[in-house]
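This entry is listed as follows:

___
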Amino acid sequence: MKNQEDFIICRCENIHMSEMEEILQQGADNARELKLKSRAGMGFCASRTCGPFIESLTQDRDETPSYINLKSQPPIRTISMADFIKEDFHD
């Protein structure tokens, strides 16, 4: 049960601090593991809002981290809807 001091870490996935603390107590020691076990940072914003806070929980800001950080990646190439449809409805 969530208490008044608990707060939401990831708004996209509705993950609370109490859930993150529980995962940390179970042995998670880097941001990648926290994200995989909680789904925090895997929502619509792709960790833009909660990512820095999640990384600060585990202090994994090394210059050469031993993990692969889960970051958002843009599409290879953008495409317009007109190009995407490419269908003539005027037969």
The chain is about 35% helix and 5% strand. Residues 8 and 14 are 6 Å apart (CA to CA). Confidence is low (pLDDT under 50) at residues 63-67. The beta strands are 8-10, 15-16.
